[in-house]
């Protein structure tokens, strides 16, 4: 159940990322890197990503490599993380097993899923500006968008699983964290969706350093610190 209490966010860096500066001149990369992902009883995976801003919109691309599985995604949101355009393609041994495309407008996100053999389905999700984000379980970089609205309560949309759910996000404060053998101080956040938790740590610029989902034994850590 969602907490009715508003949760304060301490994010000095996010204002700098999306506020001052000339975004209209050209797109600016605000984060890029690679996560090393481990899961209980499974080989390690990697996820490479890039996030940039341009004229008040935020664009993210990512590629998950998990053995013979590849997941490629591209998303555009407003400055609060509200989805405007989204595409994801899942391939196994080079063959497409699922693709999803979605367009957000007028308070709704319309998603079209396509499976092998031409099977298609369309679904609409109600959206609130600054209150809805796309967050798929195995695409770690999307965690970044949960902080853009600075709200403690959000609707998280998982389009491949065809469902949306209410989540709460709260800041737990600064903690020491080791990335690539170097110790840094990061802000620890906890995201809760019913009984499932997503713990994540961000640096002073709002960049995701580490994510853990204890219920599935997942831990994702940056290969190296952001530059």
Describe the structure.
The protein has 227 residues and is mainly beta. Helices cover 3% and strands 59% of the residues. The protein contains one helix and 15 strands; from the N terminus they run αβββββββββββββββ. It has one helix at 12-18, and strands at 28-39, 42-54, 57-66, 69-77, 83-92, 95-105, 108-114, 120-126, 132-134, 153-158, 163-179, 182-193, 196-202, 208-213, 218-222. The protein has a 15-stranded mixed sheet with strand order 8-7-6-5-4-3-2-1-15-14-13-12-11-10-9, with no helix packed on it. The longest helix is centred in the N-terminal third of the chain and has 7 residues, at 12-18.
Total number of distinct structural domains: 1
**Low-confidence residue ranges:** 1-24
- Give the N-terminus to C-terminus distance in angstroms: 38 Å
Determine the strand fraction and express it as a percent band.
over 45%
With helices defined by DSSP (H or I, 4 residues minimum), what is the helix count? 1
Q: Calculate the mean pLDDT score and round it.
A: 88
What is the percent of helical residues? under 10%
Question: Strand pairing plus helix content: what structural class?
Answer: mainly beta
What is the number of strand segments?
15
Shape: globular
For the biggest β-sheet, the strand order reads: 8-7-6-5-4-3-2-1-15-14-13-12-11-10-9
Largest sheet: 15 strands, mixed
Order of helices and strands: HEEEEEEEEEEEEEEE
Radius of gyration: 17 Å
